[in-house]
């Protein structure tokens, strides 16, 4: 499992985020331990109230558990991982809340602990928690036989195409896959040893190199969106300047935008917009399918929860009626019959709880499989859109290359024949003058 943790305050905002059903297909509050309140917001209010008796500001520790999307993980396996994380982090016995989320065909869990020890009124220290969680994550991958991400195998082998949230949002606005964008720019950089070579390599892929206002070198795509070259390459500005110079010979961003406007043909603009319109229409259809699927799944789960609640109440009443009362109850206690009936009731209650948990888990797995099919279609659509836009960018690069290419040179044979023809005409003219 991928484990991501953070110390934080703002319990009410965190509770609202964890219970948000707009960004998740399904949300389930699984456990509240060590709180008097039976709802998440009330529990976090308790944690905040206790923290006010200390100097601790980040009184909560939030940890997410994300297994591989292709694996089916039971509630018990999640609980085991949460317990091991609790021990490693030194949060044993602290009040905690567990929430399950299902989104895009994947199931993950969130666990939030109160860091404040009510006995000593001090906060539990969270030293080196990232290192501890990374080690536990590797252990979980190895124990379950899951394919481990390269970043967990060796910290030095992290994917160099990783990107920040700001880069992702900027690329998302432009319908550009930021992983493809970074990979493309890094490929052009590796194949170039000067600003001229880099500019040529970029234009072949539909990009322009320019001089930024505050950044020495920037890259523009065919729509005029500006990207910081050092940031996209993962290099320092000084390293980029050492290879490309200070950028004084480059045009400004405005010059590059004018050049793009001249080079970008209306036909290619129309193709790009048509591709985006087609993608939005098909993506909207899939979103509607997903919304309807989620609505039906929630209805089925609510029905099952209601059925379980009714069964539990009916069986609880039946078990309570078995226990003798009054004088019969006193005699039953003396003879040991009361204890036997109580043990039987406890065993039946445990069996009912386990049966309902199995039924709930089966339904969840069934819904995850249904959602996974739709998720595959969504991924295929996005992959097709990325490939289509990539092909259009290659076309743009070819047009840019054609626009700056030199006129074709004549071959040597043709030049020789024309030269001989000029010599013959010159000789003929000389003879006429001599006569």
From TrEMBL:
Biased composition (Basic and acidic residues): 406-425
Domain of life: Bacteria
Coiled coil: 279-306
Region (Disordered): 393-435
Domain MobA/VirD2-like nuclease: 25-146
Biased composition (Polar residues): 426-435
Keyword annotations from UniProtKB, A to Z: Coiled coil
Annotated protein name in UniProt: Relaxase
Organism in which the protein naturally occurs: Devosia limi DSM 17137
